[in-house]
Amino acid sequence: MASEYVKKLREDIWRLVEPVLESEGFELIQVECLRMKTRWIVRIYMDREGGVTLDNCSGISGQLGDLLDVHDLPPGPYTLEVSSPGLDRPLVRDKDFVLYQGCDVSVRLEQKVEGIRHFRGRLVEFREEEGRKVLVVEMGSKLYQIPRDLVVKANLIYRFD
User: Nearest-CA neighbor of 94 among 128, 122, 139, 121?
Assistant: First the structure.
C-alpha cells in the first residue's frame, strides 16, 4: 500500500492537472508517483476519443511540467512522463470498472479473497452492494466477489486473437 504521503501527493497532482487536460479535450486516467533514490517519477496517463498521439503527449507534458513546477509538486527533482493508457489500460476509477464490464482483467489485491490475491479473468460486473462497491470476476467457471477497497492495481488484459 502506498504511504499516506504518496497518496496525498497523487491526489494533489490529480486536482492540479485534471482541469488542464479537460480544457485540452483529454481525460485524466491515472496519476502515479514513484520515489526513486535521487528524484521522483510522475506518470500521467490520459486518453480521449480517437486516442492520443506522441505530439499530444509532448504538448501536454510542457504545460503540466510548468504547472507542477509552480506548485512545487512533487518537491525536489522529478521526471514527468505523459502517455496514453495503452493496451493494458489501468482501471482506476469506478467508472472504468463500469465501462469495461465484460472485458478480461488482471486485479491485484491488498489481501487475499478466498485464498487468492491476484485475479486474471473476466470482469462480469461492478456494483454497489449494502454500501460497498464490489467487482465480480469470473476465473475459470467460478465467480469471485471482490471488494473494491481491496484493489491495489487493476488493468485490462489485451488479447491478440
Answer: 128
**Nearest 5°: phi and psi at 11?**
-65, -40
Q: For residue 25, give the DSSP letter.
A: T
123: Cβ contacts below 8 Å, ≥ 6 apart: 97, 100, 101, 102, 103, 104, 105, 135, 136, 137
63 exposure class (CB count in 10 Å sphere: 0-12, 13-18, 19+): middle
Q: Which amino acid is at 117?
A: R
Residue 120 domain-assigned (yes or no): yes
Q: What is the pLDDT of residues 40-72, one digit of tens each?
A: 999 999 999 888 999 999 999 999 999 999 999
Which residue from 132, 93, 104, 89 is spatially nearest to 11, judged by alpha carbons?
A: 93
Number of domains in the chain: 2
**Same domain, yes or no, for 124 and 54?**
no
State the amino acid at position 72 in one-letter form. D
For 87-133, how does the pLDDT look when each residue is reduced to its tens digit (9 = 90+)? 889 999 999 999 999 999 999 999 999 999 999 999 999 999 888 99
Judged against a pLDDT cut of 70, whether residue 6 lies above it is answered with: yes
